[in-house]
Design a protein that fits this description.
The protein is of the alpha/beta class. The protein folds into 2 domains: 11-167, Rossmann fold; 173-288, Nitrogenase molybdenum iron protein domain (Rossmann fold). 44% of the residues lie in helices and 12% in strands. The chain contains 11 helices and 10 strands. The chain has helices at residues 11-23, 39-48, 72-80, 93-100, 135-149, 152-172, 189-195, 213-226, 240-249, 264-268, 273-288, and strands at residues 34-36, 55-57, 83-86, 106-108, 117-119, 125-127, 180-183, 198-201, 230-233, 252-255. It has a 4-stranded parallel beta sheet with strand order 2-1-3-4, sandwiched between helices. Strands 5-6 form a two-stranded antiparallel ribbon. Helix 5 runs antiparallel to helix 6 and helix 8 packs across helix 9 (240-249). It binds zinc ion. Zinc ion binds at residues 66, 130, 185, 187, 258, 260.
Length: 292
């Protein structure tokens, strides 16, 4: 475990420039977009920005953002953006490089965050980027985006909704028969820490790893001996590993969504950060035998 602190640099000074730069051309054809690396940042910007602001999510629906490769059109969008919202620390290295090669405005939402260490798919120690799955920490990101967009009141309203969601999680997970959650990749470390759960991930901080047959047997043994009832899988990556481990251990599977992106189906049925997090809470309560 290690952590680092970096202050948001130049954020306040930049706010005035953004507000002034957008004011004259709002809604006009030449208006520049806010470009976001992946869903939670795009959702926050859409909720906070002045109505009519174009927000472009670089991660396509149904894709997961870890190590996303940018298309030439994405790179042009980054070049032309009024503001780029992203997570650094190697979460999306292609986007980090594109951001470094330009001098217009960007905000790394992991800068200044106290981050835990963990292992990536090659066993290297890397920082855990999944802060948005803790509603409190996501609220802090929302407030930072609000400052950057010159929309602090809208950001405070959204952060308030997140604080209510946090209260629902705290109440909902207060009294449970079990506290261990077996997840697909290690996306739920901050959520688990916030609500006193223990994450047992089948994969590392990034979802690409393919464990060996021996690895699967070990994982199944771990599930069997720990007394958990459920192996969680995700909507954006193959459920095969979770299904294999659950079958060998004789337990159920269920979705626990790390909100790295929405699928087309989720978008068309009106799902968003809040609805998915409430589904996650219900799934956790069922798997952990919580008093509701
Ligand atoms: Zn992830």
């Amino acid at each position: 475990m290690f952590s680092r602190i970096i202050l948001f640099s130049g954020m306040l000074a930049a706010t005035a420039a953004f507000t002034a730069g957008c004011g004259g051309s709002a809604g006009s054809k030449g208006e520049k977009a806010v470009v976001a690396g992946f869903y939670p940042l795009a959702f926050a910007a859409e909720q906070i920005a002045v109505a009519g602001t174009a927000v472009r999510n670089l991660t396509p629906a149904g894709a997961e953002p870890h190590d996303l490769e940018l298309t030439p059109a994405d790179v042009r969008a980054v070049d032309d953006a009024a503001l780029v919202l992203y997570l650094g620390e190697g979460f999306m290295p292609g986007l980090e490089t594109a951001v470094e090669q330009r001098d217009n405005r960007s905000l790394d939402l992991l800068a200044g965050e106290d981050l835990n260490g963990g292992k990536d798919e090659d066993g290297e120690v890397v920082l855990d980027p999944h802060v948005w799955l803790d509603p409190n920490r996501y609220a802090a990101m929302v407030r930072a985006i609000g400052v950057e967009l010159g929309q602090t009141e809208a950001a405070v309203r959204l952060a308030g909704k997140l604080e209510r969601l946090d209260a629902e999680f705290r109440r909902g997970l207060a009294t449970c028969k079990r506290r261990q959650i077996v997840t697909s990749h290690a996306a739920f470390g901050y959520l688990a820490a916030r609500y006193g759960l223990e994450q047992v991930p089948l994969e590392g901080l990034s979802p690409e790893a393919e464990p060996s047959a021996r690895g699967i047997a070990d994982l199944a043994d771990l599930v069997k001996t720990s007394g958990v009832t459920t192996v969680f899988f995700e909507t954006l990556v193959s459920p095969k590993l979770a299904e294999t481990v659950a079958r060998e251990a004789g337990v159920e599977t269920a979705v626990l969504n790390p909100l790295e992106g929405l699928t087309d189906d989720e978008i068309s049925s009106g799902e968003d950060y809040f609805s998915v997090m409430r589904s996650n809470l219900a799934a956790l309560q069922k798997a952990l035998g919580c008093r509701t």
